[in-house]
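Field: COMPLEX_INPUT
Field: COMPONENT_COUNT = two
Field: RESIDUE_TOTAL = 582
Field: MODE = joint
Values follow.
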Amino acid sequence: MSSGMTMSEKILARHSQRKEVRTGDLVECDISAAVVLEIDFSLFPWPRKVWDPDRVWLVADHAIPAPTITVANDLVRLRQFARKAGIKNLIDVGRHGISHVTLSERGAILPGEILANDDSHTAAVGALNCAGRGMGALDMLYILCIGRTWFPVGPTVRFIVDGKMPPGVYARDIIHYVAGKYGAFPNHNVEWFGSAIQEMDMSGRFTIATMCAEISADFALFECDETTLNYLKKRPQHPFEPVAPDADAKYKATYHIDVSNLEPQIALPDSVPNNIKTISEVKGIKIDQAYIGSCANSRLEDIKVAAEIVRGHEIAPWVRFIITPGSQATYLEAVEAGYVATLVRGGAVVTNSTCGACFGGSMGLIGEGETCISAGTRNFKGRMGSLNSRIFLGSPAVVAASAIKGEIADPRDI
Amino acid sequence: MIRKLEGRTWKFGDNINTDLMIPSFALAEPEEKQPKYCFSANRPGWVDLVKPGDILVAGNNFGTGSSRPGAKVLKSLGIICLLAESINGLFLRNCVNYGLPALPCPGVFSSFNEGDIASVQLEEGKVVNLNSGRVLATTALPNMLLEILAAGGIVPLLEGKGLLDKAR
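Field: COMPLEX_OUTPUT
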């Protein structure tokens, strides 16, 4: 007798027009929306005809405004392609944001849908009960031509997160804890439940879903609940149909986590899975740079936490503290709320929205022998600059506290 | 139909990420210069030793990380096949799309010493160590992916269907 399906399986079944899908299947799915980035335009030939121009979004996000002629030329091609293919959804400099971050804000993708976006952190949209995962530039080329793509159906594991979040501890600490304790989940889907998730705001859910890329997962899905619907209410939207797991859905494993006594969790340099320590084990390490940005932690709530910690303090004189909002919309909100003034007064730099420093792109690089505490997505060797630099990862609160102290610091001590 | 792949093996460990294949600083360089930086952080000098026809054997979670086309770099260095305990889902897509045969094969890491000759029958999911005679059977890739690989990747596949703009 067949058992029920997980959320990941239900979305894949719906979009492949099947009654059910099972671990080990390969399915071909239609795509609700597709994102092509400016960096792709040096990577592939153009399609003769785009399958559905209204479902395609062209986004400038990785290193903008253009820091080099190469990037400027990529942007020229992006705009040319928009005209040639008749694509109206062009997110260009000034109205921009990190691709799936700004699409989420615009209500362009919704629960139960599939977003194809060749950013490796697209699992982020799982916070909206929408299926997204890492894809490549050539995946996008195929989708631009045909409007469908293939997905292997991997096993699904679930995390049930309960307990009350202690002060100074955030969603970022939960996903770091999971990565430290359970390691990587390549080719698996991960789904998130429990009272701590139900009480978590969308910003925290986006953080966890984004960072599921660092445990090598495919899709990372959350249920659509009141919090999701309230988030969507404020945005333009089209009709949608969320998915929920069946009562008898088959999960390969279930992990229970109680956050009540969780401490801030720090990823040590070079990788995230199985490479996590608590703040008390690493605090005191001297830093040169502190960074809050990237699709993991660049939302208004993240900037607010940083501003509240920095208010009335000065950034340590030897530290560059860089904050990069995830979208220009978030930037404006942070300005209007006064957070930007607080941060700049303390000695921080608030930059325009871009992927930027997180991938060692347009600015905020670190040099030989330097150490950065980052709320960006990754800590791979050389990711943010020199191969002889170190990146520690922590929550925005840890990063802001560290910027003030000039060393990796516990936000609960400020 | 993909011919039987045979080549000398290079061994890499667990969690080999995309930024090791294309470091951030190399992204700013012209595409044809990027391969020379491959694995410069974890195995300096390797790009001068690898030869066309070689095969990679790796541990768990190979290719974790970004969308950047690491698979294309490996292919341009002459690697003809990737065998690993497990392969990151995005990286496997990039391998297939750029026409680099790749096969998750539990047990492969401990079955090879570096330099052993591997023989791979992709359609059967069969890997043989020609030095030791050890035979590994794994799940073959689904047919659709084998078809993309047989075409040489996504670009030749779409070109063959007349879907790409010839002007570019």
